[in-house]
Specification:
It is found in: Cell membrane. The chain is an all-alpha fold. The protein is about 80% helix and about 0% strand. The relative contact order is 0.10.
Length: about 325
Amino acid sequence: MSNSTVVYWALNGYGVTAFDLFTNLIILVVAVWIIVLNSLVLQSLREHKNKEATEYYIINLSIADCLTGVYLIYNTSYNLTNYQKISECLLRFGFGLCLCICSGMQTVALSLDRCIKIVSPFRYTDICNTRYVVIVTITTWTLSILIGLLPLMGWINPQENENTCGFMKILTIGYFQLLIVALFTPCILIVIIYLRIFKEAHRHAKSIASSGADSTTTSHSLKFTKTVFIVAGSYLLCWSPMGIVVVLHVIGGLDDYTYVERGNLIIYATAPAYINSLLNPVIYALKVPFIRTRFNRIFCRKREEKGRMELMKTVQTNDVGKTQSTNEKVVLEELQ
């Protein structure tokens, strides 16, 4: 890095370039939008009455996504200051990994909830009761926090200098192997669950077609299942790059790279994962009616007011038409 490209010098002799500033500005904007959109989802869900287990899992996922936005803001400040202290480094890594693992677990919980709803609709309320939701919520968050804090508890490579920070350098291969399990287990479970859902949905479709009946409840369940499927698919696509890089690191596929190059690679690979936290509320806004209504009120206020005015004109026109029709009928009766 030449001195001419450096905008200012941060801590530990790190030169911050114009590219660094531009990149972190984009990250900061994305982080703010992640927090704003997920906060709107949480507000919509808080006001929604008669919530099912599905909504509570979406709440958990939105909280994790919201915290991801907070994490990105903090990480941006680190990128522009380069404060290097191993304890801070481990806490920051642990926080990010905790949210990553929790997102995966909540996506599995969402998918399993939809599977139970489709496969055993009459037992759904008995199985997915309040106690079940609380147990799943506590278990997923506890496991996520525990796995995230393991490096801070001492599961790291010995370091000669306390003023150091490097994701690939500090964390052990054993911990990365645990991360592979934590990242890919949800992916495998999601695929298995949706294969089961599609099989059952196909059976439902054949049954309805043969009987000629129409089930509104089943149709609603399938629509919500499609929404969860999109969320799950988004998770798989966005987190796969990070998972692939971690696997390559564990099997020695990155041994020819320096620790700095490996760190840069993991940064690029996690970028889609953070975008996932921005996509989730957009998916809810497009697919879940009561969340879409709140988003429209805020982001499409002019269009909503225009639609309301057109609706009022239509109603008034209909009222006038009805009045004229009534008057004509009275005149005809009098003529007769």
